[in-house]
Amino acid sequence: MAKGEGAESGSAAGLLPTSILQVGERPAQVKKEPKKKQQLSICNKLCYAVGGAPYQVTGCALGFFLQIYLLDVAQVDPFSASIILFVGRAWDAFTDPLVGFCISKSSWTRLGRLMPWIIFSTPLAIIAYFLIWFVPDFPQGQALWYLLFYCLFQTLVTCFHVPYSALTMFISTEQSERDSATAYRMTVEVLGTVLGTAIQGQIVGQADMPCLEDPNGSAVASEGANRTHSTNSLRETQNAYLLAAGVIASIYVICAVILVLGVKEQREPYESQQAEPMSFFRGLRLVMSHGPYVRLITGFLFTSLAFMLVEGNFALFCTYTLGFRNEFQNLLLAIMLSATFTIPLWQWFLTRFGKKTAVYVGISSAVPFLILVALMESNLIVTYVVAVAAGISVAAAFLLPWSMLPDVIDDFHLKQPHSHGTEPIFFSFYVFFTKFASGVSLGISTLSLDFAGYRTRGCSQPAPVRFTLKMLVTMAPIALILLGLLLFKLYPIDEEKRRQNKKALQALREEASSSGCSDTDSTELASIL
């Protein structure tokens, strides 16, 4: 075909007068310059990375503190709290594919296809987030209040995070640039969890959180001055939660503005040639039948669930099982700081040894420390050492899923070269399965605490509650991590496969660009003739 095209060009040039050829020699002397790699500046990567902070700052504050806030500050009974946590997470899970569907139907605008979702969801999300941490004056409807605004916030933050996650595929066509930007993003997201932990934990930790002594013990809360002090302390704690919510909401807005101003969406060259967008359900059927994607999300489903169990119950575990009521926010900060500083280490490791190896080494490194926590007696120094070591594994759990999803999407594009607009489906359904499973786990864990005899605002808890918390934070996550690592054995995309996919995709892009250049050259030749 190329030879025939060259012969036609030569014949056409032979029919042209010499004077015309001197004016327009380009048809006979078309030279294609080698396509330069699309490099992202450090500023672009940082602006993109900052966009991941709002989801992590708010998610960390809710994940670590919402359960203890509902039980001990808002004084919601454990059964209602379990319903709020489960329904909120389950609703959050269902909104991900729903938003992914809406995004796939969105048309490209001057700002792109994804950016409008981020812009318009931000102001509503911060209002809903602030109201989650507000204690209404009507005790009978408190559970409905928290359920309503928790679900509303989860919907709005999904409208921010799903398009932001899919934006990974549209900031560059170079796989190496996307991996580098993902590493920047993961570093900032872990830093966001540090901010969420530090702001929420340190502000709330300054308040004098009241508790009620065990009625069967040596002290009983009195009706006089002690009750007045308890009421004032409770109000002070509620105001501390509101202050922390205001600070976090401000960070949310600042990060969203930086993302919108500093990042520009880019379309794939071959995507613009597609005549009609694929329907959502056909795209969903293709995505869910893609073997590497199913194996990847199944493995990360169990490992993510393990870390979410630890996250959801860590505050209660430190407060009641280990007895570190005034130290749990500092322990959380130690975990997140350790994770932040080790993200670059894991980025180097996966580049040097491969992503599958990084999964096995990084996530399994948490197991020995969880076993140590399960077996040891309460010791603050040892707990801090375990917290720092556990942060190393948390960093790997943060980085690897988002670094491996683009590889699966690239593999899908090679097998389905005419199926475009499916990127939001890949990301949204990964988040859907993870969130739904975490909602089930949090609901079950809170119900199990209720069955074990959890006492709201108690200074201590019965032995069955302390044992249940230890199982939820140690043995259950260990079992989930081991099961997830076994499933990763079935994941087929290793480093050799990634290199092959990279070369094939580059050839596809060059072919699309060449097709566009050929159309332009033909138009110029026709105008000269």
UniProtKB/TrEMBL annotation:
CDD domains: MFS_NLS1_MFSD2A. Keywords: Cell membrane, Disulfide bond, Endoplasmic reticulum, Glycoprotein, Lipid transport, Membrane, Symport, Transmembrane, Transmembrane helix, Transport. GO terms for molecular function: long-chain fatty acid transmembrane transporter activity; lysophospholipid:sodium symporter activity. It is a multi-pass membrane protein. The chain crosses the membrane at residues 114-135, 147-171, 240-263, 292-310, 330-350, 357-375, 381-405, 425-447, 467-491. It catalyses: 1-(9Z-octadecenoyl)-sn-glycero-3-phosphocholine(in) + Na(+)(in) = 1-(9Z-octadecenoyl)-sn-glycero-3-phosphocholine(out) + Na(+)(out); 1-(4Z,7Z,10Z,13Z,16Z,19Z-docosahexaenoyl)-sn-glycero-3-phosphocholine(in) + Na(+)(in) = 1-(4Z,7Z,10Z,13Z,16Z,19Z-docosahexaenoyl)-sn-glycero-3-phosphocholine(out) + Na(+)(out); 1-hexadecanoyl-sn-glycero-3-phosphocholine(in) + Na(+)(in) = 1-hexadecanoyl-sn-glycero-3-phosphocholine(out) + Na(+)(out); a 1-acyl-sn-glycero-3-phosphoethanolamine(in) + Na(+)(in) = a 1-acyl-sn-glycero-3-phosphoethanolamine(out) + Na(+)(out). One of its GO terms (biological process) is regulation of phosphatidylcholine metabolic process. Belongs to the major facilitator superfamily. PANTHER family: MAJOR FACILITATOR SUPERFAMILY DOMAIN-CONTAINING PROTEIN, SODIUM-DEPENDENT LYSOPHOSPHATIDYLCHOLINE SYMPORTER 1. This is Sodium-dependent lysophosphatidylcholine symporter 1. It comes from Molossus molossus (Pallas' mastiff bat).
